[in-house]
Amino acid sequence: MKEKKDAQCSLCGKCFAQERDVKLHLKRVHEGKKPYTCTICGRSFSQNSHLKGHIITVHEGKKPFQCPTCDYSSSKKAHIKNHISAVHERNGSRRQRKKPFKCSICEVNFTKEESLQTHILSVHQCKKDIQS
């Protein structure tokens, strides 16, 4: 069951499950607050998880997520999922079409730019009646 998104950002229209999530979004995205700072290089991040990922990949050089089919590895699990879908999964005996249009919010890939735009409007901006 999908979580209902009742709270909406007044500046960009992005929807959230709770009002506290809108407040965090406003600070991180629209006010540019980045309270998590790397002690090694000084780069700042809006979320602690982003700082941890930065340290692991940039300073420690680790890519903990490995493709089970080839030698591709990544610092993010979502990248592996997208890689497998775009490179290795097959539809019958033919390779699936490449999906070069990636959502910058949730990293889902699409074959057409129109599909990406429809996705952004319907999923991330609470627009339910999308016309194609």
Description:
Helices cover 36% and strands 15% of the residues. The protein is α+β, with helices and mostly antiparallel strands and 132 residues long. It folds into two domains: 7-59, Classic Zinc Finger (Double Stranded RNA Binding Domain, 2-Layer Sandwich), CATH 3.30.160.60; 65-124, Double Stranded RNA Binding Domain, CATH 3.30.160. The protein has a two-stranded antiparallel ribbon. The model is unreliable at 128-132 (pLDDT under 50).
SSE layout and pairings?
Blueprint lengths: L6 E2 L6 E2 L2 H12 L5 E2 L6 E2 L2 H12 L5 E2 L6 E2 L2 H12 L1 E2 L2 E2 L5 E2 L6 E2 L2 H12 L8
Antiparallel strand pairs: 1-2, 3-4, 5-6, 7-8, 9-10
Describe the structure using short key phrases.
4 helices; alpha+beta; 10 strands; two-stranded antiparallel sheet; 15% strand; Double Stranded RNA Binding Domain; 132 residues
